[in-house]
């Protein structure tokens, strides 16, 4: 009773007689949860403002489409009621003429014209030239004035293009990131072979990430196993060597690999000095150099999860299997490896996700055919200032990351259930 009284909140003297014990315990639990929530709130706000909100804002850019709606508000509202099967009525022509007259010479109209020009080349000059001729002359209707300024206003495709972009959101950038586009009828079609780029880029990104992950696993698993089975002093020494690359900048390490792998670099000179080759090997500025540098940079991210799991595996399991007559390799595969599988999945997930977003190493050590999706994200962000395409490519990488994490969570859950069943 004394312990129970100690955990209950202070209450007036009459309260123990009026409130049941169950309600008082529930109130104490709520107070405790509120205190914990108050302690976590600063960290939650920090993550929301510095992590969640920027990512959400960037992903929203992939579907944002404010240019046409901002420059042509009356036309956008009128086209929302248009069926798109025939030329719009005179009210829509009048709304477009009024919007042109109001926005003529403004940056908003130029932005809308550039946005429409991305889908149909030549549309920027059409919009700007037509806007200069607005408002219509006395006695001239808006339809006549627009068609006189440019005959394309009498074509259905021009109005369908504006109607497709008269909403605040569009899937155009996401479709372009998948080598798809809208045709003149608003249907989703595949782009021409000369414009199909991004599907191959994504396949290259996933393929290179997979190869790097496999090489890191094959190289890191034996080293992690050795570290887990060595005495503590020797294992700590190896751990220091694994962590040592983290003390050097990634850019510096990539530059060092350029010096080592170039035609007259140290590697080619050593091979020629040993008589193994007659002419220099092309090791840099191709896929070979990219794979070598990326494996070197990402190998610690594979070793550390493996080592943390293997360190907790008792060696008695292997000794018991061997003492019962099981061959060494079969004992390792049937007894040891299933227990190390959480480290394998965690290391592979970590390396694969980091590799998908790598930019510096392929940009410096690779040729144009080795550039990954992150290169195009940087290109659209820094050079063409096309935030929509940069956000669309980022959204695809983000979706792939979430999918991988869901697969990892499912595998980890099934492994945990299997462990509890044993």
Automatic annotation (TrEMBL):
<dbReference type="Pfam" id="PF00528">
    <property type="entry name" value="BPD_transp_1"/>
</dbReference>
<feature type="transmembrane region" description="Helical">
    <location>
        <begin position="36"/>
        <end position="59"/>
    </location>
</feature>
<comment type="similarity">
    <text>Belongs to the binding-protein-dependent transport system permease family. CysTW subfamily.</text>
</comment>
<feature type="transmembrane region" description="Helical">
    <location>
        <begin position="385"/>
        <end position="408"/>
    </location>
</feature>
<dbReference type="InterPro" id="IPR000515">
    <property type="entry name" value="MetI-like"/>
</dbReference>
<protein>
    <submittedName>
        <fullName>ABC transporter permease</fullName>
    </submittedName>
</protein>
<feature type="domain" description="ABC transmembrane type-1">
    <location>
        <begin position="202"/>
        <end position="408"/>
    </location>
</feature>
<feature type="transmembrane region" description="Helical">
    <location>
        <begin position="206"/>
        <end position="226"/>
    </location>
</feature>
<keyword id="KW-1133">Transmembrane helix</keyword>
<keyword id="KW-1003">Cell membrane</keyword>
<keyword id="KW-0813">Transport</keyword>
<keyword id="KW-0812">Transmembrane</keyword>
<feature type="transmembrane region" description="Helical">
    <location>
        <begin position="340"/>
        <end position="365"/>
    </location>
</feature>
<dbReference type="InterPro" id="IPR035906">
    <property type="entry name" value="MetI-like_sf"/>
</dbReference>
<keyword id="KW-0472">Membrane</keyword>
<feature type="transmembrane region" description="Helical">
    <location>
        <begin position="290"/>
        <end position="309"/>
    </location>
</feature>
<feature type="transmembrane region" description="Helical">
    <location>
        <begin position="238"/>
        <end position="260"/>
    </location>
</feature>
């Amino acid at each position: 009773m004394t312990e129970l009284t100690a955990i209950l909140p202070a209450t007036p003297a009459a309260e123990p007689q009026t409130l049941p014990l169950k309600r008082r315990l529930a109130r104490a639990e709520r107070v405790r949860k509120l205190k914990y929530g108050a302690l976590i709130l600063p960290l939650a706000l920090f993550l929301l403002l510095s992590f969640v909100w920027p990512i959400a804002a960037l992903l929203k850019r992939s579907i944002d489409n404010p240019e046409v709606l901002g420059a042509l508000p009356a036309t956008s509202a009128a086209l929302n009621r248009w069926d798109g099967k025939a030329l719009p009525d005179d009210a829509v022509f009048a709304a477009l003429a009024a919007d042109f007259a109001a926005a003529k010479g403004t940056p908003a109209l130029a932005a809308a014209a550039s946005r429409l020009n991305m889908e149909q080349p030549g549309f920027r000059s059409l919009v700007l030239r037509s806007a200069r001729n607005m408002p219509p002359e006395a006695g001239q209707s808006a339809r006549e004035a627009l068609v006189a300024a440019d005959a394309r206003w009498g074509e259905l495709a021009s109005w369908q293009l504006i109607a497709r972009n008269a909403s605040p959101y569009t899937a155009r950038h996401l479709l372009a990131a998948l080598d798809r586009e809208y045709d003149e009828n608003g249907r989703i079609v595949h782009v021409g072979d000369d414009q199909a780029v991004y599907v191959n880029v994504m396949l290259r990104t996933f393929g290179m990430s997979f190869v790097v992950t496999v090489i890191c696993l094959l190289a890191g698993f034996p080293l992690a196993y050795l570290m887990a089975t060595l005495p503590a002093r020797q294992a700590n020494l190896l751990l220091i060597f694994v962590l040592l690359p983290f003390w050097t900048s990634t850019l510096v390490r990539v530059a060092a690999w350029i010096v080592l792998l170039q035609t007259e670099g140290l590697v080619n000179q050593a091979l020629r000095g040993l008589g193994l080759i007659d002419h220099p090997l092309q090791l840099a500025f191709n896929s070979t150099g990219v794979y070598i540098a990326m494996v070197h940079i990402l190998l610690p991210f594979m070793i550390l999860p493996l080592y943390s799991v293997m360190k907790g595996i008792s060696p008695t399991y292997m000794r018991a299997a061997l003492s019962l007559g099981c061959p060494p390799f079969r004992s390792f595969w049937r007894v040891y490896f299933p227990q190390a599988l959480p480290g394998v999945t965690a290391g592979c997930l970590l390396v694969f996700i980091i590799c998908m977003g790598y930019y510096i190493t392929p940009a410096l050590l690779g040729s144009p055919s080795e550039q990954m999706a992150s290169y195009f994200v940087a290109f659209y962000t820094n050079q063409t200032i096309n935030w929509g395409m940069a956000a669309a490519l980022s959204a695809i990488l983000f979706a792939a990351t979430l999918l991988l994490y869901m697969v990892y969570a499912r595998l980890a859950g099934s492994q945990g259930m299997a462990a509890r069943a044993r």
